[in-house]
Prior knowledge:
57% of the residues lie in helices and 13% in strands. Strands 1, 2, 3, 4, 5 and 6 form a six-stranded antiparallel β-sheet that branches. The protein has a domain at 52-115 and 158-328 and 389-476: Up-down Bundle (Outer membrane efflux proteins (OEP)), CATH 1.20.1600.10. It is built from nine helices and six strands, in the order ββαααββααααββαα. The protein is elongated, with a radius of gyration of 39 Å. The two termini are 31 Å apart. The longest helix is centred in the middle third of the chain and has 68 residues, at 162-229.
Amino acid sequence: MVLGSLNVLIVRPHKCQKLRRAWHTLLLGIPLLSGCALGPRFHAPPITVPARYASAPQDAPPAWPSRTWWRGFGSPALNSLIMDAEQHNFTIRIAVAQLQAANAQVEVLGAPLLPTLGASGNGQWQRAPHGGSSGLNGTHTLGNRQFGASLQTSYELDFWGKNRDALRAAEANAAASRFNRDTVALTAISAVATTWFQILADRAALAIGLRNLAAAEGLLAQLNAELNAGTTDAVTVAQQAALVASERATIPVLRSQLRQETLGLGILVGKSPEFLAVPRGHLAALTVPKIAPGLPAGLLRRRPDIAQAEANLVAANANVRGAIASFFPTITLTGSAGWSSTALNTLLAPGSLLLSAATAISQPLFEGGALMGTLAVNRATYRENVAIYEQTVVQAFTNVDTALTALHYATQQQRRAAEAVREARAALSAVRAQLAAGIIDASTVLIAEETLLTNENSYTQAQLTRLDAAVNLYKALGGGWRTPAPSPISGN
């Protein structure tokens, strides 16, 4: 509904110079016109931050991860795989495209804060018959020419801040997309590391299985020879044959696990299995660098998912403000400057100038509940984002404590598993010597072999668990990420 309007048409040449100056002043001053912003200002929700992590070592100096934290494991193969993932990982590429779209949306929603300007031109020529005796058909013809050119501009006064709030929401959404890209990249890189470690563990388990199978087959051959010589019984031979069959059955399972992990690694680095060259490596060659978290308060600016949740909260707050501003009038300024002449060479003459300006005010009176419904939706979305932000922060603290706990006990487990392997190997060597001396029978050797096999697999699993815990701790601490300064999100 238009409540008021003003239209002016001026064609007198002696006033053109004054009007040109007024028109120029109006165009320059339009972007500076502003009013009051409505709605709640943004304030981050209060968070209770613990003084220290429950699982952190006492008095340990902080050692935050670097941006290339994976290099601390000392694996050139892992470094190469992560480089491929950073360039070709599909989820990272999707997140980058989403960020580009969000940045473009900022330009779209920033446009209403500036005036629009358009230009047009026209030329007409008409030929009409005129009574008389001239011409081939006995008629005269008259030519009518008309030339015109014009500039049009319009601007919506953002008196209540609705357009600024829309731009602020778009900027916050773009910041959230940027933080989402960083979160996706950290997740993908961590997945590459853990998958690579699993491949090495599967290779180690397969090597252990093949080695123990070969030893079991050798012992079975020896027992068969002793059975033929009458120095052992058929029951002992049957027990060893059953062990050989069991170990043979585990080999296809181990090969299948290794192949499936390799295929999963190909997805992470963005390559089909046919083009993936998996490098060699060994768990024993990897190192676990020392990692110590700083104070929990520092974590709030070191996790991209927390920054993303805060940016979404800023956008939701701006949407609430914009919904409130929609209840108030819209003020629009329009104007045009044009020239019209019957001759092209006099088109830009002062006498051909036409100027017009208008202002319009519209106020929504009845929208069928649409404005109230939109405001209610935006307020509910804001409350939802508050809960998501608080959950993200608490989850971040929990992730760090969980990873610290896992790394601490995995380190102990690996140390004790290594001791168990050494003891089992020494025991197997002793019983084999006793078997050769005829002191014991082969059943004792069978038990010693099974014990060593179990302990070696446990040690491999302990190595993998410790490496995975280290990766999870790096990830929980943000992987060396820090909130950009100045922060791309700000209160409004």
